[in-house]
Design goal:
single chain, 137 residues, alpha+beta, Alpha-Beta Plaits, four-stranded antiparallel β-sheet, 39% helix, binds guanosine-5'-diphosphate
């Protein structure tokens, strides 16, 4: 059993498709172990995406992530990290496989609907960034 962090990004929250995205997780063997809606501060977004600090798109990424509330959840299940990445589809929605969350709900490489941890190690760090142990059930 693994846990991974999912973020429904501001574009998808604005489009009112939180439930449709959560359904993709639940219908594919992932369970919601924790969930909350939050407005990230600039400092939150910069800290969360610190690994991308040197990338040319870092400023745009931070602006986008604070442009509205996000829904953060801990997904639990067998191979949860890889399963979530598979359900999300490629970073650029134009390259995302049909039927994936990004193919169906994302507009562009920055407004790409969802975030998902890319390794078990990062999942642990990202979950701890947002949730206390007692909030994960
Ligand atoms: P992910 O793991 O599929 O989310 O992709 P990455 O870890 O490579 O990038 C993190 C996030 O940065 C992506 O989800 C995008 O929102 C954003 N991003 C990646 N590449 C670009 C880019 O070329 N331009 C912009 N504006 N944003 C990007």
């Amino acid at each position: 059993m693994e846990q991974t962090l999912s973020i429904i990004k501001p574009d998808a929250v604005k489009k009112n498709v939180i439930g449709k995205i959560i359904d993709r997780f639940e219908s594919n063997g992932l369970r919601i172990a924790a969930m909350k809606k939050v407005q990230l501060s600039r400092a939150d977004a910069e800290a969360f995406y610190a690994v991308h600090k040197e990338r040319p798109f870092f400023g745009e990424l931070v602006e986008f992530m604070i442009s509205g509330p996000v829904v953060v959840s801990v997904l639990e299940g067998e191979n949860a990290v890889a399963k979530n990445r598979e359900l999300m589809g490629a970073t650029d929605p134009k390259e995302a496989a049909p039927g994936t969350i990004r193919a169906d709900f994302a507009e562009s490489i920055d407004a790409n609907a969802v975030h998902g941890s890319d390794s078990l190690e990062n999942a642990e760090k990202e979950i701890a960034f947002f949730f206390a142990r007692r909030e994960i059930l």
